[in-house]
Amino acid sequence: AQRVTQPEKLLSVFKGAPVELKCNYSYSGSPELFWYVQYSRQRLQLLLRHISRESIKGFTADLNKGETSFHLKKPFAQEEDSAMYYCALLISNTGNQFYFGTGTSLTVIP
Amino acid sequence: EAQVTQNPRYLITVTGKKLTVTCSQNMNHEYMSWYRQDPGLGLRQIYYSMNVEVTDKGDVPEGYKVSRKEKRNFPLILESPSPNQTSLYFCASSYLGRERSEQYFGPGTRLTVT
């Protein structure tokens, strides 16, 4: 069973519009969740993690345990945000196992 | 420069011919991991290691072996590759502890098994 679900394979928004990339997880313990991003011709890299409660490049993500969600949001999309985004779950009670979603390809239209 | 390197970057092989994909990191990371990326399936963890001589199965370990004899290296071994192991493979490393979530990824190895 998929532990991390990203329902949108492709997402297109206009520059300046708000963007939300959805992520839902399946885990009954305390989750550690992250967003990773892969820009064109670059390596996969960490964007943000829920424990830091930080905003990176204008993106934020709030962990909602009731809805088991960790959606990524940005109020005003920029062209340079076009990339592949992966939501990831770390389960560390019996090791350090990562589960990634299938990814969402975001295109910001000028 | 801090980085994760993988070799080879591209490999075409035949069914049953043993192969090894090397992974090396120069950041003194304790944690290393292998993933495969397939269309529609995202990244799936194959094996991971929390330190030298400590390895654990990820989500899809069947058909793969790993070893961690040195901290910096974490090779992925396919003893008898099959066509369903055709994929894009990524190695990653990170610290343990609070910073463990920041995995540094290698450039990927595209493997084709015919």
What would you say this structure looks like, in words?
With 110 residues, chain A is mainly β. Chain A has no helices and eleven strands. Chain A has strands at residues 4-5, 10-14, 19-21, 24-25, 32-38, 45-49, 60-64, 69-74, 83-91, 97-100, 104-109. In chain A, strands 2, 5, 6, 9, 10 and 11 form a six-stranded mixed beta sheet that branches. In chain A, strand 9 and strand 10 form a beta hairpin. Chain A starts with a strand and ends with a strand. With 114 residues, chain B is mainly β. Helix content of chain B is 0%, strand content 50%. In chain B, a hairpin with a 3-residue loop joins strand 4 (31-38) and strand 5 (42-51). Chains A and B meet through strand 5, strand 6 and strand 10 of A and strand 4, strand 5 and strand 10 of B.
Outline the secondary-structure elements.
The complex is a heterodimer of chains A (about 110) and B (about 110).
Chain A: E1 4-5, E2 10-14, E3 19-21, E4 24-25, E5 32-38, E6 45-49, E7 60-64, E8 69-74, E9 83-91, E10 97-100, E11 104-109
Parallel strand pairs in A: 2-11
Antiparallel strand pairs in A: 1-4, 3-8, 5-6, 5-9, 7-8, 9-10, 9-11
Chain B: E1 4-7, E2 10-13, E3 19-25, E4 31-38, E5 42-51, E6 54-57, E7 65-66, E8 76-78, E9 87-94, E10 104-105, E11 109-113
